[in-house]
Amino acid sequence: MRIGELSRRTGVAVHLLRYYEEQGLLHPQRRPSGYREYVEEDVAVVRRIRSLLAAGLSTSTITTVLPCLRDNGDRLVPTCADLLADLHQERDRIAQAIADLQASMAALNDVIAAAPADVTRRALAARHA
To answer: Of 76, 95, 72, whose CA–CA distance to 84 is shortest?
Structure first.
């Protein structure tokens, strides 16, 4: 199938599919005309990529873990023993980023709460105008 068909079947824009190829995530064959030719398995590969991106992994990390995953219904299942350690490390990185964002939000909440009542009223009125 050509790139437009893969885009239609996965809901992923053509430019993103080309980007995935540039990142080494997709490996289409090339026709003599230069057109990309995708196989049926590429539909599943794109879905795996999208799931991993939604989980917060970078494309460079996905390049490493993608060969060690298979689909099991609606879940991705690791098939390589060393992959689990990498996934735990990614989860820890994401958890730390969440903790850092929560600390930032708490600090911002403290600053906002310290505003005098008249400043708060004017700010709220401006937000709703």
So the answer is: 76
Q: What is the pTM of this model?
A: 0.73
Contact between 49 and 57 (Cβ < 8 Å): no
Burial of 48 (0-12, 13-18, 19+ CB in 10 A): middle
Residue 129 is which amino acid? Answer: A
Give SS3 for 30: strand
Backbone dihedral angles phi then psi of residue 69, each to the nearest 5 degrees? -125, 145
Supply the DSSP string of 53-102, one letter for each residue: HHTT--HHHHHHHGGGEEEETTEEEE-SHHHHHHHHHHHHHHHHHHHHHH
DSSP state for residue 29 in the 8-state scheme: E
C-alpha span between 47 and 56 (Å, rounded): 15
pLDDT for 61-82, tens place per residue? Answer: 899 889 888 888 788 888 888 8
Burial zone of 43 (CB within 10 Å; 0-12 exposed, 13-18 middle, 19+ buried): middle
